[in-house]
Prior knowledge:
The two termini are 33 Å apart. The chain has helices spanning 12-25, 52-66, 80-89, 101-113, 139-156, 163-168, 197-213, 257-271, 280-288, and strands at 29-33, 40-44, 49-50, 71-74, 93-96, 118-122, 128-130, 177-184, 219-220, 228-232, 235-239, 247-254. It is an alpha+beta fold. Strand 2 (40-44) and strand 3 (49-50) form a beta hairpin.
Amino acid sequence: MFPNHIPNPEDKAAMKAITQAVLQNKADLGIIFDTDVDRSAAVDSTGREFNRNRLIALMCAIVLEEHPGTTIVTDSVTSDGLTTFIEKKLGGKHHRFKRGYKNVIDEAIRLNSVGEESHLAIETSGHGAVKENHWLDDGAYLMVKLLNKLASARAMGTGGGSEVLTHMVEGLDEPAVAVELRLKIDQNHADLKGGSFRDYGEAILKHLEDKIDSEPKLQKAPVNHEGVRVSGFGGWFLLRLSLHDPVLPLNIEAKSNEDAVKLGLAVLAAAKDFLALDTSALDKLVQTS
């Protein structure tokens, strides 16, 4: 396919292919796009990937050099470590919003309209837009900003390869464990009692919220725009309802498998009362980790 792998910056085979090409050719930088070039990712000269949270961190570092203190809008599944990196190291403000590149871009535009300066809207999928480019969802433009940074470093004689980019994300705390599971709702199950999957999913989220309130080791995010986001055991999870499908995506990030299991068990404790929800993927995570 395409011709050797899926054209997707989030696809492991695609990222492996560009990484191997960079190392084999001793290139300074590798760049990958999807087919319509609105999503992108990169690989540095050592083979380190810049995608998902790491790409966002790199773009934040570049944009915040140009616009100190600006607000960065991201989707809901970005990490707690990214928030710390943006706010504590870079001096910006992290505004975590909803999934969907259109949601993220529209929120950045809205913030500017009410007087809160924002110059970057970016999603973990690789979609990204900047104010200076009229908020176009443009993966190529993001990569040009990386190349400009490389060219400037080369002109000043500082750093070899893509060293300048690698150094810009130093200090980003990254999890040892990061998983995304899709918990499906069986729309034909009697437990729905004739209701919609959306109502059923919202009931699950409300029940989870109530459960978390009684757990002293877990804390709900004080500001959250999508689903139920909870921190604890050195990590976090987000359970949300898909916009169109009868699915509850679950993201878990933790510093160890043991901590990921503890977070997974917190979700299971609430989900077990909802018989139409298929928790087999989460059961497997908890049992095998």
